Amino acid sequence: MEEGAGAEKEPLLPARTAGRGRSPRATFGADTCAASAASCTVQDVAGFDHDLYINQALVFIEDAIQYRSINHRLDSKSLWLYRWYYSRICQWVLSFTITLILALAFIETPSSLTVTSDVRYRGKAWEPPCGVTETIELLCFLVFIADVSVKSYLIGWEEFRKTKWLLAYILILLVSLIDWTVSLSFSCTETIRIRRILRPFFLLQNSSMMKKTLKCINSTLPEMASVVLLLAVHLCLFTMFGMLLFARTKDKQQEKEWVGYFHNLPDSLTSLLVLLTTANNPDVMIPAYSKNRAYSIFFILFTVLGNLFLMNLLTAIIYNQFRGYLLKSFQSSLFRRRLGIRAAFEVLCNLKENPLNTHELFVSANILLQVLQKVEMDSCCKQAILKELQSCPRGILSAAQFQKLFDELDRDSVKQHPPKPEYQSPFLQKVQFVFGHHFFGYLGNVVALANIISICVILVMDADKQPSERDDYFLGAINCFFILYYLLEMLLKILAMGFKRYLSYPSNRFDGLLTGILLVLEVSTFAVYGFPHPGWRPEMMGLLSLWDMVRLANMLIVFRFLRIIPNMKFMALVASTLMDLVKNLRAFAGMLVVVFYAFAITGIVLFKGAIVPKGNTSVVNATSGNSTLQCGTYEQLDYWPNNFDDFAAALVILWDVMVVNNWQVFLDAFSRYSSPWSKVYFVAWWLISSVIWVNLFVALLLENFIHKWDRHCHRQSLSEIEYQTTVELMFRDVLEEPTEEELMEKLHQHPYLQLCR
To answer: What CA–CA distances, in Å, run from 642 to 113, 621, 650, 653, 671?
Structure first.
């Protein structure tokens, strides 16, 4: 009876004794259903229950907006804790903590706090005393412990046991704390710190999109492995052919190819692997090509089959497979959104006001209005939903109407511009028409182009002049004229469009900001150096010389010329695609941060101090008879700043290898300075960064551009209405809606939710 009473008091919650992992279906006996049905009448709903239902629906809707799982506790205290955990301040603290613990790598031993990373000139870096960074780490660990504790409590023991990410979270924290204790016991003198390489996990587990991306990459690996295996076969076959073709002979000219690139199996594999990326082309074939032009066929055939066919085939497979698995992931996200909305509907069904039909499930529009007023969501989206809600017939919504009401969440974010001001004066109306016309914008573009041309002409004329011979009068006068025009143009546009409408256009905000900066810079120039006049060449004064200030103004003017992009339809399409990529690349950028961080820490452990200058390392002309350094080597190219002696330097060298330009230099240098097995590390990094991640980026770029391209024809001009999309919305048109049966089955499996039917 006590359980039945508890169920009547909070019908959406299981009894406390049955809540420990028991399925809610186990409590769906006849008595329980009768009690639940009785609790669904408005006469039995107490004020406490009313607030509970409102808060439950509120959380379910917010879960749907953020694509979160609804499998969490639903009592009043847990709901408060849940909303507090996902509040902006709490998530900001968590994000700051993750950023802080990752940033510790820059100041920990070996510290990156030096002006240069060049091993020949780098001074002794400042090292924090033992306990400083460790204290910061401990504070971060305490935040992470609180984070995992709150998450574990909110989802409950049964869900916790099924969540591998939370189990891994606890394991990573445990290992990190043990390693932290070991560091203190050794007075921070240990060389290997396991917890440093584990830190990227904290970033990874905090992003659902990054988890989806990682899962998609993991699912795509089997298909990628088949092409990589084919690449390996291609590489091995041509390596054997090359070793046979360029074997050691008595011919000194042909022997150069053997000595330089095909001396043994590891060198042959490395040479052709680098050729696969075209980084050493045509250097690798020059010795043989000098002997006989027919040898070029071998290298051309290898490059065509490997680089043009197999590598591009790998790109196509990654795009196709990744898009398919990402589509499945977004299908799951859509199901979460629909499930959250349906759960909110089922909860609010308990708050019927004057039901017309006791067998009909519906939600009162007034009750939903109370919920929406508390929901944290995009203001434009909320206004659109409220507008639809006000036009609801009879003031009630069925399940289908309720779900359709929240379809606004699945649409591209549309930004409408404020209306123009309405002037009564005929003169102002004519001014508004003239300066609000798009031809006035075209005139501004022509003026900006003229400004660029004038700057280019003056720069070409003064290119070979010494600073003492240069006359800045013309450039200063031209800048003054154009800046005044830009100021006048901005004021006239504000008059014609109104201040709010003017600021609603990103291109106008861009113009206005640069015009303001240029005006301040020009006034400062006049205040310090006076007005332009012939022979205007003051000496260096203050923070910036006149030439520095003029150059800065010119750079801003050149940058301002980008204003033409919105006026060119296809260029605007490309620019908007790039802007959307910047907004939606957080997950992909986060994945890149994770692999960069992990490989950088691993590289420091493996190669710290490996690069050591030997003797006189000054660069000698490789063509002279006194040359002591082989042309194209690490030493001759002065690559000394590229090393793994600190975290910042490690990031730079990893970037250089990812770009694959001259990466054979690093393969050779680290195999000589450390071990030939170092090539495994660099090849693994090339595969992960340049082959996998870059191709994933290409896949997202293609999908984003295709999405924009398919829609730009039947939409209004991008300058009139701005459409903002997300990665999820790019796949919205091909996703399948979940059925009623699927939603209800999932709701019945909820560990804390009891339905009234």
So the answer is: 16, 22, 8, 5, 14
Q: Is residue 637 within 8 Å of residue 666, measured between CB atoms?
A: no
Prior bond to 128 cis, omega within 30?
A: no
Give CA separation, 86 vs 432, 583, 718, in Å.
47, 21, 34
Taking CA 485 as the corner, what is the angle to CA 481 and CA 488, rounded to the nearest 5 degrees?
140
Residue 418 and residue 498 in contact, taking contact as beta carbons nearer than 8 Å: yes
The single residue listed with the structure tokens 């039995």 is: 44
pLDDT of 393 above 90: no
The span from the CA of 409 to the CA of 389, in Å, is 14
* CA–CA dist 379, 408 (Å, integer): 12
Sort residue 108 into left (φ over 0), alpha (ψ -120 to 50) or beta: beta
Structure tokens at 739: 């059925």
pLDDT tens sequence across 115-171: 999 998 888 888 889 889 999 999 999 999 999 999 999 998 888 888 899 999 999
Element at 722 (helix H, strand E)? strand 722-724
- 349 CA to centre of own chain: 40
Q: How many CB atoms lie within 10 A of CB 158?
A: 14
How far is Cα 518 from Cα 288, in angstroms, rounded to an integer? 58
Helix (H, G, I), strand (E, B) or coil at 428: helix
Do 136 and 100 meet the contact criterion of CB atoms below 8 Å apart? yes
- Cα–Cα distance between 216 and 645 in angstroms, integer? 34
- Model's pTM, two decimal places? 0.76
The crossing angle, in degrees rounded to 10, of helices 311-348 and 365-374 is 130
Q: How many CB atoms lie within 10 A of CB 16?
A: 11
Q: Which of 654, 659, 666, 650 shows the shortest CA–CA distance to 691? A: 659
Give residue 41's region: left, alpha or beta (phi > 0; psi -120 to 50): beta
Return d(Cα 3, Cα 17) in angstroms, integer.
8
390, 372 in Cβ contact below 8 A? no
Report how far residue 103's alpha carbon sits from residue 126's, in angstroms, rounded to the nearest whole number: 16
Of how many residues is the chain composed?
A: 757
Of 564, 365, 358, give the one whose Cα is nearest residue 448: 564
Residue 400: partners with Cβ closer than 8 Å, 6 or more residues away: none
Q: Which residues of 403-431 are buried (b: 16+ CB within 10 A; e: fewer)?
A: bebbebbeebeeeebeeeeeeeeeeeeee
Torsion, CA 162, CA 165, CA 170, CA 174, rounded to 10: 130
Tens digit of each residue's pLDDT (9 = 90 or more) over 208-257: 878 877 887 787 778 788 888 888 999 999 999 999 888 887 766 667 88
| Omega of the bond leading into 421 within 30 degrees of 0 (cis) | no
